[in-house]
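Try it yourself: sequence plus 2-phosphoglycolic acid, in.
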Amino acid sequence: MLIAANWKMFKGPRETVDFLGRFRAPDGIDVAICPPFASLQAAADAGATVYAQNVHWEPEGAYTGEVSAAMLRELGVAGAVVGHSERRRLFGETDEGVARRARAAIEAGLGVIACVGETIEQRESGDMELILKIQVEALAFAVGAHERLVVAYEPVWAIGTGRTATPEQAAAAHAFIKRLLDVPVLYGGSVKPDNAEELLGQSDVDGALVGGASLEVESFTAICQAAASLS
Ligand code: PGA
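Structure, out:
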């Protein structure tokens, strides 16, 4: 079971070191910390398994604001998140670009957490499976079922809203994704200490990508403990 902390644009190096000095991962699960780029080095030096929140597909070049997989490896970073819905929605990332980012990261030896998920409009108009299929097949085509690839199912309507998928909705979406691409699938979207055990206990739920509740040591530890109790 993998529990990943997506810190988004929170925690500079000082707060990162403070958090990791107080956090102990329970035995029996894998934990990945995904801090902002500016805090990657501090997190790696503190001994955490560290994932970046994005990675570019080229090894170097005129791509202002981007970071390559080789640069991340040089920092001791283990992997990268790609295709988070905030990147897709706010920064115009496409399925094709996300797939290229995933492939470059895998080829450079990084692990990848590739995010997919439908909006509320897409779910309500009956297009959830179509959207997931388009997003997952781009990854399947570019990378395939690689041992370092993990998918995160994050229904956009559940991110930061306090609204989670029901355990049944999560289980159904995860099973659908795995039929398209046979890799572990994390659930993300308002995972909290009080719903973690039920969500993580569903079949085909192989871990969680946690945003808001990963920012405090206490709540993130409680989620990790719920995962450890199930593994
Ligand atoms: P949330 O974020 O847990 O705050 O909903 C999850 C994510 O965006 O990865």
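One thing you can check immediately is this: The pocket of 2-phosphoglycolic acid is lined by residues 6, 154, 159-160, 188-191, 209-213 (CB under 6 Å).
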